[in-house]
Amino acid sequence: MSLVTGLLTVPNRAENKNLRVWAVTITGALRKTFIGTGRLLINFYIEIAEARSQREMIVAERYRDRYLRELGASLRSKISSKLT
Question: Which ranges of 1-12 would DSSP assign to H, the alpha helix?
């Protein structure tokens, strides 16, 4: 039991020990939660970065294909104009 003097409560040794055990338990649980959340956020960041990279590779490939088609068409027209 605590001694109550006015508004001030003074815990005895047993309550103080229980409070420390409770604080350590809560702190450990919060620490594990924050670590897990941090790892999850890092994994999300990595996945998003990979998806962006793949998207940019697809866009670059499409531009390259379009450029090669246009280059091929212009070369064919130049060759056909020289042959005629």
Answer: none
